[in-house]
Amino acid sequence: MEAVELFVATLRGPVGRAYAVAFAHVLRGADLVCTCPLGEPCHADVLLRLANDGDPIRTLENLEGPR
Q1: Ramachandran sector of residue 29 (left: φ over 0; alpha: ψ -120 to 50; beta: rest)
Q2: Are 59 and 53 in contact (CB under 8 A)?
Q3: Gyration radius of the chain's alpha carbons
Q4: Distances (CA, A) of 50 to 5, 10, 36
Q5: What are the φ/ψ torsions at residue 11 (nearest 5 degrees)?
Q6: Residue 41 located in a structural domain
Q7: Which pLDDT does position 64 carry in this prediction?
Q8: Which InterPro entries does UniProt cross-reference here (predicted)?
Q9: Would you say residue 67 lies in a domain?
Q10: N or C: which terminus of the chain carries fewer CB neighbours within 10 A?
Q11: Among 9, 40, 11, which residue's Cα sits nearest to residue 27?
């Protein structure tokens, strides 16, 4: 869980925001898989929310993670 929170915190930074917007554009409508245990927080969940919520910057502000 800590790794996902740190990932979210990184995406909230000035450089991370640019990547978040790029991820959102490229991943919109895609399916992602990973090796995280089911039911546990995952980087793929963060990326999918960014891609499919419509406004990646607003989504970043609403994601769980350290501020």
Answers
A1: left
A2: yes
A3: 11
A4: 14, 14, 18
A5: -65, -25
A6: yes
A7: 62
A8: DUF4326 (IPR025475)
A9: no
A10: C
A11: 11
Domain-located, residue 32: yes
Domain count, the chain: 1
Residue type for position 53: D
Cβ neighbours for 27, distance < 8 A, ≥ 6 positions apart? 47, 48, 50, 51
Q: Which domain holds residue 36?
A: 2-61
The first and second tokens of residue 60, run together, are: 């970043």
Summarised one tens digit per residue, pLDDT across range 10-65 is: 998 889 888 888 888 888 888 888 888 888 888 888 888 888 888 888 888 887 65
pLDDT at residue 66, rounded to an integer: 45
Inter-residue contact 50 to 59 (CB < 8 Å): yes
Enter the pTM of the model.
0.76
**Is residue 66 situated within a structural domain?**
no
